[in-house]
Structure formats: C-alpha cells, structure tokens
Amino acid sequence: MTDQDPTQITGKTEPCLASEFDRVSLLLADAEKDLENSLIPPHDDEKALKGVITMESAHDPYTRIHTKRVAYYAEKLCLELGYNKNVADYIGRAVEFHDVGKIKIPTAVLHNKGQLTNEQYEAIKKHTTDGAETLLQNSKGYLSVLAAKIALLHHERLDGQGYHNVDGDDLPWYVCLTGICDVFEAMTATRTYQKNMSPEQALQTMWSQQLKANGKFFDPDMLQAFTKIAPDLFAEAEEKIPSIAEDDEDYYMRHAFPAFN
Ligand SMILES: [Fe+2]
Ligand SMILES: [Fe+2]
User: Fold this and answer.
1) Angle of helix 199-212 relative to helix 173-188, nearest 10 degrees?
2) 125 an active-site residue?
3) Could you read off the pLDDT of 63-83 as tens digits, one per residue?
4) Which of 123, 151, 156, 201 has the most crowded CB, counting CB atoms within 10 A?
C-alpha cells in the first residue's frame, strides 16, 4: 500500500501525471477564487462529502481507519502548535479526506505486499490528484476546498522531492502538518505485510530522514512539537481508533461503518 512507506515514493513523475497535477491544480485555484469572490455561497459541505467517506470505507476500510487516525493526530498537533480548538477541529475534519483518491486504486495494488512496479507507483501517486478532483466534484464549499488542497499536496516535502515536486515554499502549514501525521501513522499502524514500528522507532526514522534531507523533509518546528506528543497520541489512538488487521472483517463492520462514526 502507498502508506507502507510514503517517504520512499518520490523521484521523477511521469509526464501524464505532471499534466494531471497541473489540471487539478487549476480546478482547485478556480474553486478557491470562486469562494473568495463568493460565487459559491459558503455552506457546510460536510453532508455532501459524507458519500465520499462511505465510498472510502466500502472500498478499503483499512484506509478509512488510517485517515481517521491521521485526522486525530492532526487535530492534536494543531492544538499543540497553539491553534485554537475551532481551527484544530476544522483541520482535523479536512485531513480525514486526504487519501480519498485511493478509492480509484485497485485493492490488489493497495494491499500489494511485494515490490510495486513503476506503473503501480504512478497509480498510487495519482491518489493525490484523484482525491482532490473527487472532493471538488462533490462540493466546492470551504471544507471541500481545504480538503482538496490537503489531498493534492500531502505527499510533498519541504525540499521539493515529493510526489509532484512542489516547492516547499508553496506548501501551506496544514499540508506540512498532515504530512508528518500521515508518515507517523503509516509507520506505526498494524499491517499484515510489514511489522509496525513503535512510536519511538517511527519518530527516530522520521528524524533520520529529516537529517538526510538537510532538515527539509518535514517542517522542523512541527516535527519537534509532534515528537513531544506522538507517543501519548499513539496510545490514545490505539484506544479510540484501534488499528485493524487486514483480514478482520468483523472489525471493519464495527469500526469503519457507518461513515463519520
Ligand atoms: Fe496519501
Ligand atoms: Fe495517508
């Protein structure tokens, strides 16, 4: 699955994905402009997005648990960074949609336990553009536009070596924050295809990646703040949103449904 080690899927993006990124970026810029100019009346679009989450749960309940846990970490990291409760709550809700594009990735690829082919890597990278487009197709309210931005950019890095090689200066703070929570969750989640890391091992790995990237893999202040709270957050998440084994169908039914449970 893409998140088995999201930090490893980088490198040169194929031209077709690059043009896809440009196309979806324009859609997003238009939606942002419409919101700014009030062409789209502000509304609570969570209802409109509920169907997207239901699709994600049905396609891959495993991803659903992952996104819920990442959203939990993101909300808490916002608070740790000094944002107020309303902001933290809103960011958490938007982060929950960050991997929605995976509904277009065949489960055989998502759960591939072996080496992925180049084509499969490209398909996985595309969950960013697919996710942003799906969200915008469902709603163009504030939450959806914010979620689409996160979906599109959450695999970018400060050094510009992410999926779409976006310059680190162009990454909003909430995108950088999502990236940290996403990588940590991916490394610590229980997976059948790999042994999960302890929170301490995951943080150590993230810091060594940070070092290798000359301090420009993750936002350094955010990584510092997250390091302080991550072990406790992990314990909380294990209780509130337990990880699942891929073959535990009963668990899927209890925890992945209904949407927004
Ligand atoms: Fe992702
Ligand atoms: Fe993710």
Assistant:
1) 130
2) no
3) 999 999 999 999 999 999 999
4) 151
Task: Compute the distance between CA of residue 202 and CA of residue 188 in angstroms, rounded to an integer.
Answer: 7
Contacting residues for 39 by C-beta, under 8 A, at least 6 apart: none
Q: Does domain 2-256 have CATH number 1.10.3210.10?
A: yes
Question: Of residues 102, 125, 140, 149, which has the active-site annotation?
Answer: 102
- How confident is the model over 109-124, as pLDDT tens digits? 888 778 888 988 899 9
Phi-psi region of 241 (alpha: psi -120 to 50; beta: other; left: phi over 0): beta
pTM, two decimal places: 0.88
SS3 247: coil
Using the Cα atoms of residue 207, residue 211, residue 212 and residue 217 in order, give the sign of their dihedral: positive
Cα 240 from Cα 243, distance rounded (Å): 10
Contact (CB, 8 A) for 156 and 180: no
Name the band, by pLDDT with cuts 50, 70 and 90, for residue 59. confident
Domain boundaries, the chain: 2-256
How many angstroms does the Cα of residue 236 sit away from the middle of ligand 1? Answer: 22
Q: Are 145 and 35 in contact (CB under 8 A)?
A: yes
How far is the C-alpha of 7 from the C-alpha of 235, rounded, in Å?
Answer: 23
Distance 2 CA to ligand 2 centre (A): 8
